[in-house]
Amino acid sequence: MKQSVVLITGASRGIGEALALTLLGRGDRVVGLSRGVSEQTIAHERFMAVNVDLSSLAEAEMAMHRLFETLTPDAIDDITLINNAAALAPVTPIEACASSDIASHLHVSTAAPALLTSLFLQKTAEWPVPRTVVMMTSGFAGIPAASMSLYCASKAFLNMFVRCVREEQRLSSRPARVIAIDPGMAETDMQAYARSREDESFPVGALLRQAHEAGQVLAPRDAAERIARLLDERGADEQAVLRV
């Protein structure tokens, strides 16, 4: 029996884990690409864990090559890549950022999603099945925030990257669907860490605490269910950046 196959980076926790569980629950086959794995996802027979450190582009590329050696379009109804993994740190003014922290952040949050998208489109170019590429973005892509220059800029990069790749796909005889999804504020480790910061160099922390106290932060499962619904909406006039 054919199945939908979904590749998710950062599937070991937070929204990535919740999304993997949501998709597994509806019968999809899920491949999680991350440094760790959650006990809940690994218990599913349709889940495959691929251990990879996305801060290493060479490792990410090798992981994709090996993964696609195990995939053939014959048993697949459609295939999706969800670039969910992202770095938050360093959360500090840019002059306090070490070169290694800057490089690691940009590798995980911008270079790795671009590389994985490139490899995904290459390897499925001749597959006679619908293909989708998703970037998980954020409202911070359009909001300048002190001590979050790398995070905000990375999300803005993803939004523009999606728009450019959509233009490229319009020139293709077999275009893939390419979108960015903003899940809004969800209760993740990143969200909790950002709320905990109370120093003057990070004024966004107070705003995030207010949103949490007002009940405006979604549970990961609720965010995942909304994302899954957006994945099912394949309208021809869709926007590049969708919001749950």
Notes on the structure:
This protein has 244 residues and is α/β, with parallel strands linked by helices. The chain has one domain: 3-Layer(aba) Sandwich (Rossmann fold), CATH 3.40.50. It has eight helices and seven strands. A seven-stranded parallel β-sheet has the order 3-2-1-4-5-6-7, sandwiched between helices. α3 packs parallel to α4, α4 runs parallel beside α5 and α6 packs across α7. The model has no long low-confidence stretch (mean pLDDT 93). Belongs to the short-chain dehydrogenases/reductases (SDR) family. It comes from Paenibacillus methanolicus. It is found in: Cytoplasm. Keywords: Cytoplasm, NADP, Oxidoreductase. This is Benzil reductase ((S)-benzoin forming).
Which residues form runs of ≥5 with pLDDT under 50?
none
Please describe the biggest sheet, giving its number of strands, its sense, and whether it closes into a barrel. 7 strands, parallel
Q: What is the overall silhouette? A: globular
| Protein structure class | alpha/beta
Determine Rg (CA atoms, Å).
18 Å
Nearest-integer average pLDDT: 93
Strand runs, count? 7
Helix content: 40-55%
Number of domains: 1
Beta-strand proportion: 15-25%
Determine the CATH superfamily: NAD(P)-binding Rossmann-like Domain
* CATH structural fold name: Rossmann fold
In whole angstroms, the N-to-C terminal distance is: 31 Å
Second CATH tier, the architecture? 3-Layer(aba) Sandwich
Order of SSEs = EHEHEHEHEHEHHHE
